[in-house]
C-alpha cells in the first residue's frame, strides 16, 4: 500500500520498539520521515544509511530541544502531514514510596512531551497538503483506561501520565478540527519491545499474559504500527478524538 506517498511524517522515540516499527511502516508506505529520539547511537544504527529518513536527536521533555527539532523539520520538509507521539518511559514503584522527581519525570516524557511536540508541529501540519488529511497519533496504553495491578507492578504515575495523554488527544482533536487536523490515540496492550523485555523474561508473567489475552499471544510492534498507519491515512478521514485498542482483546475480557 502507498497510503503515505508524498507525505512528511515525524515519529518520536523512533529508534526502538513501537516507534521503530511505526517509522518503518510509514516509510514502507511512501512517507519521508523525521526520526526523533534521545539515543544518538541507536538512531544511527537503525536509520544510518536511509535517504528517506532525517535523523533528529532530541529530548521530547525539553522545550528548547523540541523547538529545535521542529525548526529543523520545517527547514528540511517545509510542512508535516503526520506526527506520531510515541516516545514514552515506564517506571514501577508503590505509591507510598514514589518520589516527586520520578512522578515529574514520567509526566515530562509521557504527557508534556506530546504537548510540546504537537504545539511545535502544529504550524507545519497547518501548512500541509490540502489534497489529504493531516493528523497526530498519540501512543497511549491500555493503562490509560484500566489498572493492571495483578502484574505486581504498581505504577500510578504511568497510569496517570497516559490518562493525561488520552484526554489531551480528545481536547486537541476538538481544538484542531477546524484546521482540518485529526488527533487520535493508539492504546497498545502488552507488546514485545525493549521496554518489556525484563517482564517477559519471567516465565510466570509471560504465561499469565498469554492466558489473560483472548487472542492468546503477546503483541508485536508491527501490530501497533499497522494501527498508526491506518489512523494517519485518508482511510481514517472521518475519525478523530478516538482510541484504537491494539491489545488482543485484553480490555474487553
Ligand atoms: P522502547 O523503550 O523500546 O522505546 C522508546 C524509545 O523512546 C527509545 O528509543 C528511547 O530512546 C526513546 N525515548 C525515551 N525517552 C525519550 C525522550 N525524552 N525524548 C525522545 N525519545 C525518548 O519502548 P516501546 O515499548 O517501544 O514504547 C513506545 C511507546 O509505546 C511508549 O509511549 C510506551 O508507553 C507505549 N506502550 C508500550 C507498551 C509495550 O508493551 N511495549 C504498551 C503500551 C504502551
Automatic annotation (TrEMBL):
Q: SUPFAM superfamilies of this UniProt entry?
A: NAD(P)-binding Rossmann-fold domains (SSF51735)
Q: Name one GO biological process term.
A: fatty acid elongation
**InterPro entries the UniProt entry points to:** NAD(P)-bd_dom_sf, SDR_fam
The keyword Oxidoreductase is assigned to this record? yes
Keywords, A to Z? Oxidoreductase
Q: Which GO terms describe its molecular function?
A: oxidoreductase activity, acting on the CH-OH group of donors, NAD or NADP as acceptor
Entry similarity comment: Belongs to the short-chain dehydrogenases/reductases (SDR) family.
Q: Which NCBIfam families match?
A: PRK07231.1 (NF005559)
Record protein name field: SDR family oxidoreductase
Organism listed in the record: Micromonospora radicis
State the taxonomy lineage.
Bacteria, Bacillati, Actinomycetota, Actinomycetes, Micromonosporales
